[in-house]
Design goal:
By secondary structure, the chain is an all-beta fold. It has no helices and eleven strands.
Length: about 110
């Protein structure tokens, strides 16, 4: 079983930046970030494979960057040019074959 520990959420004004981190207790095949705003479904924000291939939601392309330190089993999400619509609880996800693991979630609030 993989445990995920997230950090880095907070409140920022529009146009600002935040960096999320997620440390996994073990090896994973793929890690990523999802987010869920109130009343909305959880959606993929960005994902990175062990080979560092990345995938982004259209809404964050050009603003967010996902990266991974394989030695530390840690994934990062650098969020720039934040918008109020980025406000949500952000969840770290780790995939290990048939199993998916989730972090506890970290709140990101962007004010206009």
């Amino acid at each position: 079983q993989v445990q995920l520990v997230e950090s880095g959420g907070g409140s920022v004004q529009a146009g600002g930046s935040l960096r999320l981190s997620c440390a996994a207790s073990g090896m994973t095949f793929r890690m990523g970030w999802y987010r869920q705003a109130p009343g909305m479904q959880r959606e993929l924000v960005a994902m990175i494979t062990s080979g560092r291939s990345t995938n982004y939601a259209d809404s964050v392309k050009g603003r967010f960057t996902i990266s991974k330190d394989n030695n530390k089993n840690t994934v990062y999400l650098q969020m720039n040019s934040l918008k109020p619509e980025d406000t949500a609880v952000y969840y770290c996800n780790a995939n290990l074959g048939a199993f998916d693991y989730w972090g506890q979630g970290t709140q990101v609030t962007v004010s206009s």
